[in-house]
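User: C-alpha cells for this one?
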Amino acid sequence: MYVQNISHPCYPKGYQENITIAEIYDSPCVPTPSMLSPAQILTVTGTGNPAACRTAILKLFNFTCGANRTCGFDGVYQPPVRGQFFVRSL
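Assistant:
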C-alpha cells in the first residue's frame, strides 16, 4: 500500500501520526471524493513552524469584519463579553 507523507506546520516538530483517508472524511459535513481510497495511509509529520501554521489558519477563515465591530470567525459579529462568566474545558 502506498503511504503519503504530509508535513503539518501546526504540529510539534517531530510529531508523527498515521491516519487513513477515511479518518479525514469521517464527518457528515465533509463528503468523501469518489476518487480516493479510504484505506490509503497518510503519515503526518509535525514541523513546529508557528509562522507557517498561522498562514495556514488564515487561509481557512475570513477574519475581516465591518467597521467598529468585533468578529469571531468568518466575519460573524461577536458582541463584547460583559459581566462575569465561567469557562470550563474537559
